[in-house]
Amino acid sequence: MDYQQKLADIHSRIAKACTRVGRDAADVTIVAVTKYIGVEETEQLIAAGQHDLGENRLQVALPKLEGLPEAMLANVRWHYIGSLQTNKVKDVIGRFHMIHSLDRLALAQEISKRATQRGIVVPCLVQVNVSGEESKSGFAPEEVTDFLKQAREFAGLEICGYMTMAPVAQDPEETRGVFRRLRELRDEWLEGQFAPATAVHLSMGMSGDFEVAVEEGATFVRVGSILVK
Ligand SMILES: *Cc1c(COP(=O)(O)O)cnc(C)c1O
Asked: What is the mean pLDDT of residues 158-180?
C-alpha cells in the first residue's frame, strides 16, 4: 500500500468512528508521526497530501526540517509531541507549529521567555498523566488547574488543550477510560473557567487506539507505525 491509500484508509476509519458518536470528521486532524522514516519518505508522505507531521525528538526532526524543499516545508505544520528538554526550546519554537508535550512549569517558563524574545506566540497542549503511571510524564490531573492559573501570566504561550498517552494495551477498549477522562477534565476546566476558552483540543490516540480516542473526542490523533512502517 502506498501513502495515499494508507491515508485514505485512516481517514475512512476516523470518519466511521465519528459517525458512531455523531462527530464531524473535519474536527479530527491526523498528525502523521515521521520519527520512523527519513527525508525521502517524508517527502512522499507530504506529496500524498499529509501536511500535519509529528516528531518526538528534535535530532530526528532536524534532517527533515533542514532537508525538505522549501516549497514543501511551506505547506507543513510540524507538531512537537515528545518530551522536550528546556535547552532545546529555542530550537523548537518558531519551527514547530504546536507543542503537544507541555509537561512542567519550567518548560512553560522557558517557552514563554524565548517566545517573548522572538515576538511570537507558541500554541501548546498541556500533557496530562491521566493513567497515573510512574513512567509517564505530564501533570497529574489535580495539578492542572494550578498550572493553568500560573500559565495565564506567561506571555508568548497559548494553551490550546491537552495531550495524553494511554497505557500500552492489547485491546484498545482498555484505553477508553483514559481518553474519556481527559475529555471530561477538559470540559470541567472550561466550564469552571480554570482554562482559557482556547483550551479545547485533545491530542490522544495512536496507531493502536485512535478510533477509540476519536469516539471519546480526540481532535488530534498521532499516528505513526500503521502509516509509515
Ligand atoms: C511515536 C509516537 C506516536 C505514534 O505512535 P504509533 O504507535 O507508532 O502510532 C504518538 N505519540 C508519541 C508521543 C510518540 O512518541
From this structure: 96
CA distance 85 to 60: 14
Cell 483540543, residue? 201
Cα torsion 210, 213, 215, 219: sign:
negative
**What distance in angstroms lies between residue 33's CA and the mean position of ligand 1's atoms?**
6
> Do the beta carbons of residue 98 and residue 77 sit within 8 Å?
yes
Give the Å distance between the CA of 223 and the centre of ligand 1.
6
Locate 89 and state its grid cell.
Answer: 526550546
Atom 4 of ligand 1: nearest residue by CA position: 224
State the pLDDT at residue 166: 94
The residues, any chain, with a CB within 8 Å of residue 42's CB and separated by 6 or more, are 34, 53, 64, 68
Percent of the chain with pLDDT over 70: 100
Contacts of 34 by beta carbon, 8 Å cutoff, 6+ apart: 41, 42, 45, 53, 54, 55, 61, 64, 224, 228
pLDDT tens string 78-118: 999 999 999 999 999 999 999 999 999 999 999 999 999 99
Taking CB atoms and a 6 Å cutoff, what residues make up the pocket around ligand 1?
33, 35, 56, 81-82, 206-208, 222-225
Sign of CA pseudo-dihedral 92, 94, 96, 100: positive
Average pLDDT over residues 176-195: 97
pLDDT exceeds cutoff 80 at 1: no
